[in-house]
Amino acid sequence: MITKLTDRAVLRYKPGAKRRRIRDPHAKSLFLVIEPSGIKSWQIRFRRPTGQIGKLTLGRFDASGRELKDDPEIGQPLTLAAARQLAAKVHRERELGRDPIADHKARKRGSVPKLSIAARTRSQPRRVLTLRATPSPNSGAGPKPRAC
Fold first, then answer.
1. I need a labelling partner for 104 at 20 to 30 A (CA). Which of 56, 62, 73, 86 fits?
2. How many domains does the chain have?
3. pLDDT of res. 96
4. Domain enclosing residue 38, as ranges
């Protein structure tokens, strides 16, 4: 049974022993997540361009009822209306061919994604330390590491 999700209904939901995920019937793939600790947050689920299931937490539930003056952003406390607006924005980005999760991670880093490990190993020479089996004449100690 799908119940109508309103601000008052969200306030009335109480935490249980397990995490609860309540679907919003008025917004595509938007969920209210209630943790056992009592924290309520908004989450959206969708398929990424790679075919994997993607989950993106939009932000915590804002119980104050104040509407935002600007457009909602990921990570802000969100009312039901703001969460629906942000979910619609994420779906528009997906329809344009973008990956909202990758975009969000890049914004959090504050930079362009760095080279992957595979790209770095191909472009930079690899240095290996080796141990010589015989002691060097300059030192009476054991094997000496040497860069090749």
1. 62
2. 1
3. 87
4. 7-114
Structure tokens at 121: 């190993």
Q: What's the CATH number where 66 sits?
A: 3.30.160.390
Q: Which of these, 67, 16, 66, 19, lies nearest to 41 by C-alpha position? A: 19
Q: Indicate whether 37 belongs to any domain.
A: yes
Token pair for 1: 């049974």
Adjacent-strand bridge partners of 130: 146
137 vs 116, residue with greater confidence = 137
Q: In terms of DSSP H, where are the helices of the chain?
A: 7-12, 80-95, 100-109, 117-123
pLDDT average, residue stretch 95-114: 77
Establish if 19 belongs to a structural domain: yes
- Cα 103 from Cα 114, distance rounded (Å): 13
